[in-house]
């Protein structure tokens, strides 16, 4: 091992080549090139193989990162893929969109020692792309016999698909219900191509379909069937809808035209990229071309919006955030990419009203300063009197976060218990809601979060559903004997 690893002193950190900002701002292609085999092995060999791998500890999926880095350095790529996919249903997706700078890479021991982190995410992507190219990725097959019991999953996003994969491997008949016309949820309609090309998601969905997972698309629970209808049809039901209700800003003029929620804007852009006809995009309402765009917010969704606007041909893109750069919740890597592409960040600003006659023409904004820490531990923004200014805008995108829909009402299931935040309440141990046989996972339980957490929740919930069904099946089988 000593010959292959521990090269972080002699070998510098080296990310895959990134396309020039002037080039990538013209299209929606991914911005990073692929590692060559030699470069991936070289960067993997920088791992220090620490006794307590903080990269693994800070990965929500507890991926065995040091071991698959060692295998990559030694050229054992098929084994590296098998190990990475043992804990992660979608390693090629996490390798692209996980905020590694806040998770595994941000806690790398050699990063703390000043040598620069191992490029974990890029290597994870390389391993999995090699696996796809080499034909090592196969449809999930039941380990053992097919089971007659079925599970209905509401939502084809990362939590639902992760659960579907694991339940299918256990032999269950899996049915996934989704309101959209394609599986993937946020992965398809929320995240732009330059971060996650849609073909990457589509090939995983196709693999699940080949494995026997049945997708029921354009299907809305509450319209096409109630939650009780699905309970009668399946042995267990999993709610994995995610959270899509946009948080709003209550300010004078917020009802003006051309002020839109982030998901409305991103969904239109992604559907257009997929070749769909989107009326509001075709009319120009949701197309930033030739417009001054203002995005309000500081998370990863805001970064997706500003970078999409650049690619659509906006004449100016400003991002307003009420705190400073150091307190921004989004990935610093994404902020840097956005700055390179021409986005102007206006820190310590808070929109107070919107100006315009019928349509928005400007955002009236107050200057802020950071005061004492609030309940979250971060310094709270405090307005500076008399420092207001206007930012011209033809299109304003609100990227203020997401809340759950009123699922008891939507699903026509008033008995479904929710928290005071509107998320579905589950037992921490059984993952079950207050309704027998109904489980929940992902953002609809924990609130708006990362894709990697949704994958973890979906996998854990699949195990809980398996235990629940088997606990009911085994006594019945014994009684029949």
From TrEMBL:
Which UniProt keywords are present, listed alphabetically?
Answer: 4Fe-4S, Iron, Iron-sulfur, Metal-binding, Oxidoreductase
Q: Name one Pfam family in it.
A: Pyr_redox_2
| UniProt source species | Ferrovibrio xuzhouensis
Query: What name does this protein carry?
Result: NAD(P)-dependent oxidoreductase
Listed SUPFAM superfamilies: alpha-helical ferredoxin, Nucleotide-binding domain
Q: What is the lineage of its organism?
A: Bacteria, Pseudomonadati, Pseudomonadota, Alphaproteobacteria, Rhodospirillales
* Chain ranges passing through the membrane: none
InterPro entries linked: DPD_II, FAD/NAD-bd_sf, FAD/NAD-binding_dom, GltD-like, Helical_ferredxn
Q: Where does the Dihydroprymidine dehydrogenase domain lie? A: 24-135
Cell cycle as a keyword? no
Q: What are the FAD/NAD(P)-binding domain coordinates in residue numbering?
A: 151-458
